[in-house]
Amino acid sequence: MKYSLYLGCVIPNRYPGIEASARRALSRLAVELLDMNGASCCPAPGVIRAFNIDAWLALAARNLSIAEGLGADVITLCNGCFATLADANHILKNDPKAAERVNAKLAEVRRSYKAEIEVYHITEVLYKEIGLEKIKESIERELPLRLAIHYGCHLMKPSKTRRWGVVQRPTFFEELVEALGATSVEYKDKMMCCGAGGAVRSGFPDVALDFTVEKLENIQRVGVDAIVNVCPFCHLQLDQGQVEIESKLRRKFEIPVVYYTQLLGLAQGFTPEELGVYMNKTSPTYLDKLREAWTTGQGAPAAEGS
Amino acid sequence: MTTASEQALTWKSLSPDFVKRLKDAGFENISTCMQCGTCTASCPSGRRTAMRTRQLIRRSLLGDEGVLEGDDIWLCTTCYNCLETCPRDIKVTDAIILLRNIAIERGHMLPTHKRVAEILLETGHAVPINEENRKKRAQLMLSELPPTVHSHPQSLEEVKKLLASTGFDKMVAGKK
Q: Does A304 map to a domain?
C-alpha cells in the first residue's frame, strides 16, 4: 500500500508529534508514505477559499499535481486539508471548464492537473483499506481507557462529495478506537464543531473558544481519560484552546487531547517520546493509567487472550 | 453610529446584480429558499452569536449588499450542518463562502484575516514553521524542515506566481 503523504501546515509546523506518530504507526501497518516535495498549504478551505476561490483552486490543483507526479493517491491527516483536496479534486474532475481554467494557470509554472488520483483521509485508509483486523494484529498492548471521540466537521461533510454515506450517526471512529481496547464514551452533542474552522479562530477567537468550552463541558460531564481526534486543527483548538481558556476565562478543564495515531502507536509499542505525546499542550495523564494497567497485566495482547 | 431606521432596507439599496451573481455561481436554486429556518436551527454559531443563517440568505435574495459589510458572514465555522439539513438542497455553506469572496472584493477584510493571507503569500503555508517546532521535529527524528515549500524554494516561487496570477496578492495588498 503506497500513498502520497500530504502534510499541510499545522501538522509539520505546530504538532510534529502527529506527523511522527502517523509515519511510525502506518509503517507498522505496511503503508509506504511518499513525501510530496514542495507541497504548500492546501489551502485552508474556510479561510483561503473564503478570500479567493480561484487562488484556492489553483493551489489545491498544484498540490494534487505533485501527488500525480508520484503516481500514488493522497493520504491526508487533517480534515481541513482533506476538505480542500477532496473538494477541489471533485470540482476539477466534474467541471471541465474549471479544470481548463486551472490548467491554464498551472501551465505558467509548468505543471498540469490530470485527474489521475483520489484523495483519502487517514481514517478511510485505516478503516476501509487496512481494516480493523489488521489494526488489532498490529498492536502489542491494549489501551484500557475511556475516550471522548471528536470527529470534526469536514471529515464527513458535505456528504455528497464524501464516501462515508453517513453524517449523523457514524461509527467508524468508535470502531477504530475500540480496536485498541479502549472504550468510546457517548457525550452530549458529540458531532458538534470544535469552533476553529471557517476563519473563526483567526477572526473571532472568543467565539471559537466559546464553542470549545461547550464541547469540553459536555465531555467533562461524562468523565474521560482523553479526547481523541483525527484533525490537527480540531486538535489545536481542543488542546491549545484549553491553555487559552485558562488564561482568558480562568477555567481549567485539564482533559488530555490526543491524535488517533498517537494512541495507535502507543498500542503498537512505541514510546510516548517517539510519538510526540508530551508535545501536546495538555498533560497526558492517561499514561499513568496505562502504565498501571500494563504492569498489573491488564491490556495483554489481544491475540494471547483469544 | 447608524440608527435603526438608517439600517432598515429601502428598495434603493437593493442590487439585483448581486442576486444574479449568486445564481450564476452555481446557486441556481437559492431562490427556492422558503425561509423555514432549519439552517439557523442547526447552526452552532447562531447558538452563541447574533448571526442568523436564514437571515443571511433572505437578505442576499433581496439583493441587500449590506450583508457583505457586517461580521455575520465571518462567524460561520463552515461546519456544513445547514447545507446537510436544508430541505431545499441549497448549498448554504458554500453560498456563505461566495458572499465572503464578494465582501473581500469590495474591501471588507478583517486585519487578522489579512495577516493570514500575507503569511501564505510570504511562506506558502498559512501556519509556517518556527524555532520551537524545528527543535521538536529534530527531537522526533523528523527532518528539521518539512519536505514542503519550506525545503524547496523553487516551489515557493511557483506558489507565489499562482497567487499573483489569480489576483490573490493584489487582494491582500489592496486592503489596508
A: no
- A133 CB near a chain B CB, below 8 Å? no
CB B167 to CB A108 under 8 A?
no
Our CA-based measurement puts residue B20 at a distance from the nearest CA of chain A, in whole angstroms, of 18
- Is A211 among the domain residues? yes
Count how many domains chain A has.
Answer: 2
Backbone angles phi, psi at B37, to 5 degrees: 85, 10
Query: Are residues A88 and A161 part of one domain?
Result: no
Burial tier of B3 (Cβ tally within 10 Å: 0-12, 13-18, 19+): exposed
- Average pLDDT for residues A129-154, to the nearest whole number? 98
Q: From CA B20, how far away is CA B22, in angstroms rounded?
A: 5
Q: Say whether both A39 and A163 belong to one domain.
A: no
A135 assigned to some structural domain: no
User: Do B138 and B146 contact (CB within 8 A), yes or no?
Assistant: no
Nearest to A158 among B84, B129, B159 (CB): B84
Interface test with A, best of B98, B116, B121 (most A CBs within 10 A): B116
Task: Tell me, yes or no, whether A131 lies in a domain.
Answer: no
| Co-location of A114 and A211 in the same domain | no
**A128-139 tens-digit pLDDT:** 999 999 999 999
Q: What is the pTM (predicted TM-score) of this model?
A: 0.95
Other C-beta atoms within 10 Å of A250: how many? 7
